[in-house]
Structures are given as structure tokens and as C-alpha cells.
Amino acid sequence: MSPIKIAERIQAVPPSMTLAITAKANAMKKQGIDIVGFGAGEPDFDTPDPIKQAAKDALDRGFTKYTPSGGIPELRQAVCAKMKRDRGLTYEPAQVIINVGGKHSFYNLAQVTLDPGDEVIIPAPYWLSYPEMVKLADGVPVIVDTGADQGFMVTPDQLERAITPRTVAFLLNSPSNPTGMVYPPAVIRQLADICLRRGVMMWSDEIYEALVYPPAVHQSPAEYSQAHFDNTVILHGLAKGWSMTGWRLGFTCGPKAIISAMDNLQSHQTSNPTSFAQAGGVAALTQPMDHLPAWLASFDDRRRLCVQRLNAIPGVKCPEPQGAFYVFPDMSAFYGKTVCGKRVTDSLTLAEALLEGAQVATVPGIAFGDDRCQRLSYAIAKASIEKGLDRIEKFLREAA
Ligand SMILES: Cc1ncc(COP(=O)(O)O)c(C=O)c1O
Hints:
Blueprint lengths: L7 H4 L7 H12 L5 E2 L11 H12 L12 H15 L8 E4 L2 H12 L5 E6 L4 H8 L3 E6 L10 H7 L4 E7 L11 H14 L2 E5 L20 H5 L1 E6 L12 E4 L2 H12 L7 H12 L5 H20 L14 E2 L10 E2 L2 E2 L3 H12 L1 E2 L1 E2 L9 E4 L4 H16 L3
Parallel strand pairs: 1-12, 3-4, 3-5, 5-6, 6-7
Antiparallel strand pairs: 2-8, 7-8, 9-14, 10-11, 13-14
Helix pairs in contact: 3-11, 4-11, 5-6, 5-10, 12-14
The structure holds pyridoxal-5'-phosphate.
The site of pyridoxal-5'-phosphate has 13 residues, from helix 5.
């Protein structure tokens, strides 16, 4: 018998449902087929120059060695200053840890707070890694379904009903991946109050904070009172607002006991985030976000184009997102029909049909816990968006 074995822990993690379709899209591209890819999970802008310069300077002065595992003091301090500046929240450095990307922030938070059987309430549609990371920490993801009809937002009543004696945390992601929805401050307040009253931690993933389209505003549940502040863990990072996905810099703000446990775990796990990347992070957080108005204007233009064009296709329902760079149209009206010569029954078969028949790559909603929808990222050139939407429209109009 072969001595090679794979632990049950990882065998229980399903391979990404989107992997097959991404692989197929890539293979078609390699064959020279002109695919319009709506799959991007990152801004299509370059990291701003002053941030890159700060990292280059750090390299040149030899800042290439280990740093404290939880991040350099300057960066922890810069996070404190940023939270004060943007949210009016007063954190001290002991309440902040720098992680190796936002994904790492959530992973380590789950690892240090969950015991076997502990439940985390996650509204669907959700960012696809949350449930798997909860399971990897022996926790139980409790999924609460929201849909396009309720604006993809969990209601206070749904949250109340999902809480059990095993509930440890409620995860809020606003602005949301995959829907782009931004919760109104009044609703966040209601949800945060329920968590406080029922003794449930609020985990708030605010990684898309900067990408909000007025009149919508970003609100953190930690902002309401000292009690809300003490009950909230904020998950954040530099990937989206500063276009630094490859730098792998995330951060977590919350109670000292949690931050110190995460630091302990991190010290035996990844150790510090890359030293010179952290130097770039200090520049990102301490300098004004001069790049932002132009980015937001460009994303907003593309967002409006997508929403308007998708809603003009009979059978497609596309709520208008107020943040991030995704639209999440409900296309379930086409289930049971033939699209591009292929019978469509769910979000996966629709994505396959669009890829094979229309040469357009979308991400099937089932990957995010909502089988009615497709996720399209508009962080691609406007001309590509137009070409892709022309193709989608043509094929969906011909569906029979
Ligand atoms: C909602 C959400 N949270 C966290 C992350 C993690 O970002 P990263 O690990 O690239 O910093 C992502 C990335 O797509 C995301 O969409």
C-alpha cells in the first residue's frame, strides 16, 4: 500500500467549483479563442507609484530580514491612524495585527476563536472561502439565504432566528463580494445590536471599504458605541482599495485577547508578512488616497454600463450594487431553456453554455451559495465589457 496519504481535514474541502470552468476558459484562450473574461477578482489599476517606491526604497536599504510576526510597529501604527482618520475608531497597536492578506486574517481569526461545533452565521451569497475556512477551524458555517429580491441583505429577523447557543460569530461583508451590496447604516446598527444583545461576536469584513459609490456610505458596526467596538473584529486589507492583491497584506483590528492569540498562531505559522511589502503598506496607509477619485469614477462608469445592459435583457434581474466591482445578476429565468445549443439547468451549466457558445467567462453563483446568479467582475476594460455584454445579450435573447 502506498504510504502517501491526505488528511481528512483537507479531503473535506471541496475543490473550487469554478476551477473547471476557469481551466476551460484558459485552455480556450491558449487555443487563440477570443474569450471575454468577467472573472477578475482584483482592480485593473496598477499599485500607486508612491507605494511601489516605498517598497523599492526598503529593499535598497536592506529591509529584507524577519520582522515581528504581527507586523512592523510602523504599519500597526499606520493602521491605527487610518482607522481613526476614516472611521473615527481609536485602536492601539496591541489591538491590530498585520496578516499575509485578508484571507489570512479571516483564517487565523477562525483558528483562534472556534472550537469544534462552534457556529458562524454567514449570509449567502458569500465570498466562497468563508465557509471552508470556518470548517478548517472545526467550526460549522450556518448559511442564511438572502436573494436578489431582498437586495442580497440578511434581515434582522433572519439573524435572530439563525442564532443558537453554539453561535460564536456573525459575519458581515459590506461592501460584498460577490454582490457589491452595501448595507445601509441603519440595518448594520440593527444587526450589530442583535449581536450585542445575544452575545455573538460581529466579524466585519471591510476589505472593500474604499470602493463605495455615493450616495451609499460605508459604516462599520464598531462605530456605534464602546460596547459595539468591543464586540467587533474588523477584517481588512490593502488588496482592493490600493490595488495591492499580489503584495499579500491584510490586517485585523479587535480585542487585544484575540489579536494576541492571532499573533501567537502567526508566530508559528507564516511569521511576518514580507518585510518590504510592509514598507509599501505604511506608504499606502499614511499617504492621502489620491488615486481613489479616478478609480471610483472609472468603476462607477463601468458599473452603470453593466447594470443598464444586463437589466435590458429580458429574463435578467440585476440589482444595482453600491460597492466593490462586481455585479451579480439573477439569470435563473433561463433554467430549463437551451442557451447556445446547450440545455441549461443551473448556474454551472449556464456558465458553461456562455463560455462554449458565447466565449464569455462568468463565475457561476453556486460557488457563492446562490445558484440563481452569475458573478461578473467589471474590473476589465470598458471595450471588453461591451463586447462581452453584446455576446451575452445575443445568446440569451436566442434562448428557447
Ligand atoms: C470579501 C473578501 N474578503 C477578503 C478577501 C481577501 O483578500 P486578500 O487575501 O487578497 O487580501 C477577498 C478577496 O477576494 C474578498 O473578496
